[in-house]
Specification:
The structure is a single chain. The protein is of the alpha/beta class. Helix content is 34%, strand content 23%. The strands form four sheets. A nine-stranded mixed sheet has the order 7-8-6-9-10-11-12-13-14, sandwiched between helices. The chain has a seven-stranded mixed sheet with strand order 20-19-17-21-16-15-23, sandwiched between helices. Strands 3-2-1-4-5 form a five-stranded parallel sheet, sandwiched between helices.
Length: 466
């Protein structure tokens, strides 16, 4: 745990008592603060009370007496409308921050030179975060991984010299972290996502850019979309050390792709090269970008090219991201629950043919229209969740069925795929949607898929990534 000592002696409101909220409350209490905990859900309030916290209806407190409101990242700050706690805090002049801000303040107060890597972007954040952490640990470093990847940042060991914190940052978390100042900052890519929470693409990109703007050392940016390319240019003009990544063309200083080889370029000259061939967990162009980002980050942290590449070869991959669950005869079952938008699902559809595709959930901006070029790869689609009617309209005459629930979709897809004469039929959960209509998060959705698949008769479990 990281005690939040910077609020010692102060009264602090914590709203949102899920995993990160409770970890925040523990850290504040350990650091000497008075914690006033609240959540709109009775079950969450009961858990906090059982953990010994002072559960207080924040509608009834004197907000002027509070030093801060620590808001869970899932709670709306601006769009579609600010949560009621946000209105109360603003009216009283109380700062609104998140758990990563508490970490940044602790690091600044106690170990300002401790290495801190922050990763954002629309897609690839989790794989890149896990890969950087894997390389650091495989080479003998003390690496702490957390943030949006699933472990609350304040649950980690405290910042210290020689201890590396590798933190995945969502736009929601960045919005609540005004002093975000990583020693190495990464923004991988940007496509339309979470516009219901940010209003416009410009606003969403602006939040992401705050991570790069706060970076004190090397800023690493994918430059294959116009948003991140412009960010890289602005960061360079601001005097930052910038490394660019591209899977589509050359770069003057950074890394680019040539077939399955990654090229390290300085001042326009190739000074190093390594191959991704044979690294099963890093297949595909999207994973090439993740590998380049991890290489660039580890190089910026002082690791040698040889030790980085050697460690990458033992990377096992990430749960819920192109995760091989099992095989039944000629049918492979793949859990890609982390694909919460069309851009992410595109990577999975591009990796297979003869696909029995399970898709749907809470839809994102644009739906699945952008995936039309991949529809010929799909033998049949099984639509679940609140997006089912919309996705059905987009698919049109392409074979599909509205299955409504995941259990029915798995049963139907498994039956249809078993009758397929193709050598490598794939039942693929890659929803292109958030999970919040039927599941609390993508992990629960992926675990449910995994359990359903493993219960199929005649299935041979696999584990790992394709």
């Amino acid at each position: 745990m990281i005690p939040a000592t910077t609020f010692k002696g102060a009264s602090v409101a914590v709203f949102g008592l899920g995993g990160s909220g409770l970890a925040t409350a523990h850290a504040l209490r350990e650091g000497g603060a008075r914690v006033l905990a609240w959540d709109d859900q009775e079950g969450a309030r009961q858990k906090a009370a059982q953990a010994g916290f002072e559960v207080v209806d924040l509608r009834e407190v004197d907000w002027v007496s509070l030093a801060a409101l620590i808001l869970a990242p899932g709670v709306p700050l601006t769009h579609p409308a600010p949560h009621w706690t946000v209105g109360r805090a603003r009216a009283a002049g109380v700062e609104i921050i998140g758990d990563i801000e508490l970490f940044c303040r602790e690091r600044q107060a106690h170990a300002p030179t401790a290495p801190f890597v922050a990763i954002t972007g629309t897609n690839g954040k989790s794989t890149t975060t896990a890969l950087i952490t894997h390389v650091l640990k495989a080479t003998g470093r003390d690496a702490q991984m957390g943030g949006n990847i699933g472990t609350a940042i304040l649950s980690l060991a405290p910042p210290a010299p020689g201890r590396f914190h590798v933190i995945e940052c969502s736009s929601f978390q960045i919005d609540l972290t005004p002093s975000l100042n990583p020693s190495v900052g990464l923004c991988l890519n940007l496509t339309a996502d979470h516009l219901d929470r940010h209003g416009t693409m410009e606003a969403y990109a602006g939040v992401k850019e705050a991570l790069i703007a706060g970076t004190t050392g090397t800023a690493i940016l994918g430059v294959d979309d116009r948003w991140t390319a412009a960010m890289a240019d602005r960061a360079e003009r601001a005097g930052k050390q910038v490394m660019r990544l591209s899977t589509r063309g050359p770069v003057a200083d950074g890394l680019c792709l040539e077939g399955q080889d990654v090229l390290r370029v300085r001042a326009g000259a190739v000074v190093g090269r390594f191959s991704l061939a044979g690294i099963g967990a890093l297949r595909g162009v999207h994973n090439a970008q993740n590998a380049m980002a991890a290489f660039a980050a580890c190089e910026a942290l002082g690791l040698s090219a040889d030790e980085i590449v050697q460690a990458m070869r033992s990377f096992p991959g990430l749960a819920h991201r192109m995760e091989q669950v099992g095989r039944r005869a000629h049918v492979l079952f793949v859990n890609d629950s982390k694909a919460t938008n069309a851009d992410s699902t595109e990577k999975a559809l591009a990796s297979f043919t003869d696909i029995y595709w399970i898709a749907g959930g809470k839809p994102k901006e644009g739906g699945i229209a952008s995936l039309a070029p991949y529809f010929p790869r799909i033998r049949k689609s099984y639509l679940i969740g609140s997006s089912a009617a919309e996705f059905s309209a987009t698919l049109g005459t392409w074979p599909h069925v509205i299955a409504e629930t995941l259990d029915r979709a798995v049963a139907l897809a498994a039956e249809d795929a078993s009758k397929d004469g193709a050598r490598d039929a794939v039942v693929l959960l890659s929803p292109a949607c958030a999970s919040y209509d039927q599941f609390p998060n993508f992990e629960v959705r992926g675990a449910a898929f995994r359990d359903l698949v493993l219960a199929l008769p005649g299935l041979s479990p696999l584990g790992g990534t394709p």
